[in-house]
Amino acid sequence: MELIETLLAGKEQGCTDYAAVIEQIPYAKLLGVEMREDNGELLFVLPFKDANVGNTQLPALHGGVIGGFLENSALLHLMWARESLEVPKTVDFSLDYLRSGRAQTLYAQCEITKQGKRVANVVMTAWQDDKAKPIAVARAHFLLTQDNA
Amino acid sequence: MSNLPLPVVNQELFDSVAKWFCEIPHSATLGFKFVSGERGLATMMLDYKPELIGNPKTGVVHGGVITSLIDTTSGLSVFSRLESPEAIATLDLRIDYLRSATPGLPIYCRAECYRFSRQIAFTRATAYQDDGKDPIAYSVGTFMRDSSKATIK
Description:
A: alpha+beta; two-stranded antiparallel sheet; 4 helices; globular; B: alpha+beta; two-stranded antiparallel ribbon
């Protein structure tokens, strides 16, 4: 089954764990991303692992891991919300690092701010202990059609 | 005449950071390699690997991989202007994805620290494959200088 089919089949069946979806995205598997549904909301979870460290002295998560985890979350969120039947294309991605990512689990949630016919604007938030204290926020535009940008 | 190259400010510091930036667990996982450095400039690259794919249908590398490469190379460009060791932290990174990366080809990133002030360093970076005139991504970033007491060796 293709990625989108696996995702939508899971959603139909009321599945709360989307491991079969992550299994199909090599980069998400490499990071160790988990995707869950909780009370009708999507939650992305990134359990800590050494391969995601960017600063061994602090230690802290690599900034690129935080960015990649958020971008991946937004892509899957858009497909889950049926806003795109293909993997959307990222047009631009703007990331603010607010706190360093410590050696513990990272969480993310996304919100579709604006949904157009061809382009969606998504805001992403990443946190560790406390959702009210995000470690990074990002916003991005995604192209929903298959046309080349 | 402003583009004439100069060596990095502190060669020993820059070389050790460049090496360290490739050995960082996540950089090593993705396979970053150092290419070159001069004052205000740094270039790094990575080879295509199936584990880095973001779209299983097309085999295109995930944007997160490019984010990591741009973040790391931009940080290294800041180190090319540092006289002595200090920690830096990314404040903001903005990336425009100009076109999809071609599967199978290596990805290069050249970053420039174009403004270096007492507290903040400003960077811009371009990610490209076999044609520097047809980049896959363009980025601007800001870095906080002296961000932590844990200085970088």
